[in-house]
Amino acid sequence: MAAKSSKDIRNESRFMVLRTVFAQHTVTRAQISAETALSPATVTTLVGELVEEGVLREAGQVSSQGGRPTTLFQANPGRGALLAVDVAETYVRVDLFDVSLARLDQERMELAPGAQTIETVAEHIRGCVETLLHRHPELEGDVLGAGISLPGQVDPVRGVDVFAPNWDWHEVPLCAALEEAVPVPVRVDNPLMALATGELWFGAGRRFRQFVSVNLGTGVGAGIIVDGQLLRGRGNSAGEWGHTTLIWNGRTCSCGRSGCVEAYVGVEGIRATLAEIAPEHELLEVPHHRDFIERLMRAEVAGDAAAQRALLRTGDYLAAGIGNLVNLLNPEHVSVLGWITRYAGAELHDRVRERIAQECLPGPSSTLSIEFTEADGEGVSLGMAVLALEAFLERVGLPSPSSALTPAPPASGGGSAPGWAVPHGGLAARRR
Amino acid sequence: MAAKSSKDIRNESRFMVLRTVFAQHTVTRAQISAETALSPATVTTLVGELVEEGVLREAGQVSSQGGRPTTLFQANPGRGALLAVDVAETYVRVDLFDVSLARLDQERMELAPGAQTIETVAEHIRGCVETLLHRHPELEGDVLGAGISLPGQVDPVRGVDVFAPNWDWHEVPLCAALEEAVPVPVRVDNPLMALATGELWFGAGRRFRQFVSVNLGTGVGAGIIVDGQLLRGRGNSAGEWGHTTLIWNGRTCSCGRSGCVEAYVGVEGIRATLAEIAPEHELLEVPHHRDFIERLMRAEVAGDAAAQRALLRTGDYLAAGIGNLVNLLNPEHVSVLGWITRYAGAELHDRVRERIAQECLPGPSSTLSIEFTEADGEGVSLGMAVLALEAFLERVGLPSPSSALTPAPPASGGGSAPGWAVPHGGLAARRR
After folding, report:
1. What are the start and end residues of every segment in region (Disordered) (chains A, B) (predicted)?
2. Within an 8 Å CB–CB cutoff, is residue B428 touching chain A?
3. Domain residue spans in chain A?
4. Does CATH place domain B79-189 in 1.10.3210.10?
5. Which of A245, A316, A357, B356 is buried most, with the most CB atoms less than 10 Å from its CB?
6. pLDDT range class, residue B430, cuts 50, 70, 90
7. Sheet strand arrangement including B27-28
């Protein structure tokens, strides 16, 4: 039940300084102070430490208001490189970033459909990394770390994948396998946390301290930002909005529950909606998720009534799901991201805009903004590069966490149902 | 986008010190330090300030481990009294507490059924307060503040009730009306925040930093605790779990949406479930909520099959609703509170226990504990006494907030639908 320490505060302040520099590219200490509300003395100290470590560098001078020249600072791309790995269900992609978070290069390999072992995944990552480093001999010895996003419920502290239903992974030890494949320290996480971290550093996080980033993809989920920090929950699985109820006892979801948001708003959910409207629709046979969504949008534009109805209905489901987040969390803002927005963002945006006021209580709705961002599909790797940078900074003694990682305890027993514990002797013992 | 300051930290630390003293009644500084992980020097300073203000007092000495005597501290009941007001839909109740949060006395008046004006409510409160103060002439001049809980979406910063659907209140100015009725500074809030504050000070808050307190009553809702602080959201309406979806397009809810959790788990929801099972059931005619629940439980025990099915189904709905909270927030713990637990707690507990593992993802479920607490119906007034104490401490310069209150901005325009704002020129402008 420990209180926050002044060290925690200092780390949070360092995060705000770094985020300001990265988002604005070139800034003076006075601008950082104005943006973060940190005192000039604090900013001077924090910038000084980061310059000393080589993460920031001086970038010339400008005249200040009083006419005296003042120093500009920027991230230092020469400090080294970061690997960002996005392991999806059908591909492995590795991006190379410099420390200023500029993307230098990219390599990608397809994964065969079906279940994967961690060894296969690690082998694919190794292949991409070797190709990239071969193309960039100048970086030898200068790769500072790797951030690897894997599907499922990833525990970054223990370095395991707790649960990845589509691959039947349970408690798979990731870091052990991956650190053989990648010659640098590895930080693992899941795509939801990666996307939300990117949004916190480069998107809505610059304007809001309480917001939700909704990810629309094959699966769907949310990143919850409270008081400027990403909420991870007890075991890094906060944000599983895709596995909250939209229709109790409704469609079977991949997680084993019924009626989850993902079963209506995820790609297979959209397909199921189309099948309910037009059981014989030709697009139902398109196996690949992006192809399916892209062709559904083309059909919608071409006047296909079933495609139009399926999209409207998806917008209705999405509005209800977002309304749930708004009513429960009363955020300042909702960002809608994820690859589906590249194809269907405008249509879903319009429908959600029509419906959202009816789905929210008047109080939370009156102060809310919602923004759809057409994703470029690179949000996960950007977020993993940020997390790899955070891990590197922590190793050199300059933590700047966008979220607090707490070690999860071992699974607790104490009851007949998994996960049920009644600490003080059960119900009757706590009559007050 | 301001960072936390060392003053914020000091206030949070003061909260932890106070909570430890109130929960343990009589403690040494060393015990406070052990419980809070604050340094002995910090504890000495914070306790010293609170003693100087008269909120804490010395309470004798004990021998420490080294044999030297060490001072015990406790809350100082002589410092003054607090009024805690619970305005429900059918009654107004005022409790008198001393500063050690011991309940001294209580007065209650019924409210006539139907819509109320703020003037009627204020008149009832005035009546109860005058009776209480007449019975306690020794407290003249010593009442430090009042905490008043009102139904609906209360904004404590502006002192208004944003939305109370059952009374058709919109933007009702509470503090202005209530400060005439009560001769001391007034702090307003809603019952959900009051109950969660009580749980944070005296219940699960002592053991967990990430938890949810679920309130089962006429209406239902949740208090969300993140990092040891109550989440209030942008406009103090976080936690409206009762107005998240259980069945999309399902039963009409009092809030105007369809299929909300409250429409299945709140009292009228339970009644609707019974009506679906047995449309002619005699209990459907019992108007008063507590009578209805009490008689439903008696019928269940007596073997009434419809009552039994209605309770089982309510347990299923409750398990799904709690599963949603667990999957979205991945808390360490869920406390189930509220007056319904006094009557139906054991039965709902058993059914939730049977069902919860199926409603939660494996990760969050493996580290979760759930506890039902049979409520004594006094949780709201206890929580409001705590909030009145917090407000008093803030006025004397010793803030100890269990949550951060941020002023809500005025309702924003900027779009055709209420509450829709697209800050940067809309969708296309943010392609990244």
Report:
1. 402-432
2. yes
3. 6-75, 79-189+379-395, 205-372
4. no
5. A245
6. very low
7. B27-28, B69-75, B56-63
Place of tokens 């369809």: B258
Amino acid, single-letter form, for residue B56: L
User: DSSP code of B59?
Assistant: E
CB contact under 8 A, A234 and B361: no
Does residue B108 contact residue B168 with C-beta atoms inside 8 Å? Answer: no
Residues 6+ apart with CB under 8 A from B136: B81, B96, B104, B105
- Residues from chain A that touch B38, judged by Cβ atoms under 8 A, are 3
Min Cα separation B249/chain A (Å)? 9
CB contacts, 8 Å: B373 with chain A: 427, 430-432
Distance from CA of A280 to the nearest CA of B (A): 26
Q: Measuring CA to CA, which residue among B264, B341, B344, B339 is closest to residue B298? A: B344
Q: Which of B5, B234, B359 sits opposite A364 (nearest CB)?
A: B234
Residue B87 and residue B93: Cα distance in Å, rounded?
Answer: 6
Tell me the pLDDT tens digit for each residue of B220-266. Answer: 999 999 989 999 999 899 999 999 999 999 999 988 899 999 999 99
Tell if the CB–CB gap between A430 and B371 is shorter than 8 Å.
yes
Positions in chain A short of pLDDT 70? 1-4, 375-376, 406-432
Distance from CA of A405 to the nearest CA of B (A): 12
> Would the CATH topology of A6-75 be identical to that of A79-189+379-395?
no
Question: Which one of A21, A101, A244 would you mutate to disrupt binding with B, by most B Cβ within 10 Å of its Cβ?
Answer: A244
What letter represents residue A62's amino acid?
A: V
Q: Is A395 helix (H, G, I), strand (E, B) or coil?
A: helix
Assign domain A205-372 to its CATH architecture: 2-Layer Sandwich (3.30)
How much is the average pLDDT of B304-315?
98
Which among A16, A202, A327 is the nearest to B243, CB-wise? Answer: A327
Q: How far apart are the first and last CA of chain B?
A: 22
Distance from C-alpha of A107 to C-alpha of A216, rounded to nearest angstrom: 24
Contact A234 B4 (CB under 8 A): no
Of the residues A166, A237, A373, the best mutation for testing chain B's interface (the one with the most B CB atoms within 10 Å of its CB) is A237
Q: CB of A109 within 8 A of CB of A92? A: yes
Is A349 at the interface with chain B, CB within 8 A? yes
Distance from C-alpha of B184 to C-alpha of B139, rounded to nearest angstrom? 13
User: A167 — contact with chain B (CB < 8 Å)?
Assistant: no
Residue A230: the pLDDT is 95
Contact (CB<8Å) A363/B235 = yes
Which residues is A215 bridged to in the sheet? A221, A337
pLDDT at site B286: 94
ipTM of the complex: 0.91
Query: Alpha helix locations (H) across A25-90?
Result: 29-36, 40-52
Return the residue of B nearest to A374 by Cα.
B431
Which residues make beta-bridge pairs with A108?
A93
| Residue carrying the six token digits 């003694």 | A397
Q: Which helix (H) or strand (E) holds B20?
A: helix B6-24
A166 touches chain B (CB under 8 A): no
Q: Which of A1, A364, A376 sits opposite B206 (nearest CB)?
A: A1
What per-residue confidence (pLDDT) applies to B63? Answer: 84
Residue among B298, B229, B313 at smallest CA distance from B264: B313
CA distance A178 to chain B (A): 22
pLDDT of res. A364? 83
Which of B349, B368, B418 lies at the smallest CB-CB distance from A419?
B368
Q: What is the DSSP letter of A61?
A: E
Closest CA to B15 of B295, B181, B223, B205: B205
In A, residues 285-344, which contact B (CB 8 Å cutoff)? Answer: 317, 320-321, 323-324, 327-332
What share of chain B has pLDDT > 70, as a percent? 92
